[in-house]
Amino acid sequence: MRVVVDTGVFISAAIKAQTIPNIAVYQAARRGVLLKSHLSEAELMEVIDRPYLARLIAPAARTRLVELLNPFRGIPIVSPAVFVQGASRP
Q1: Whose CA, among 23, 43, 50, 75, lies 20 to 30 Å from 57?
Q2: pLDDT tens digits for range 21-69
Q3: What does the alpha-carbon distance between residue 16 and residue 4 come to, in Å, rounded to a whole number?
């Protein structure tokens, strides 16, 4: 299973544990492969560093979120067209 998670869902998951976004993010990470791009990761890091959000996100939740994404560093990022071509192969 491949899962793409929107930045807003990651932010919601980081702000409050035991919510649907939080459960969905960590279930997807546990069961499948989270797909992301360098741009979406950069956006996420920029957003969670904003002062008004930084106050809402516990340091442990921030660390957990960053660690969740860490295993995917170095994986080549492909265009949507290349991804779809690969997915359509038997």
Answers
A1: 75
A2: 999 888 888 887 777 777 888 888 898 889 998 899 999 888 888 888 7
A3: 20
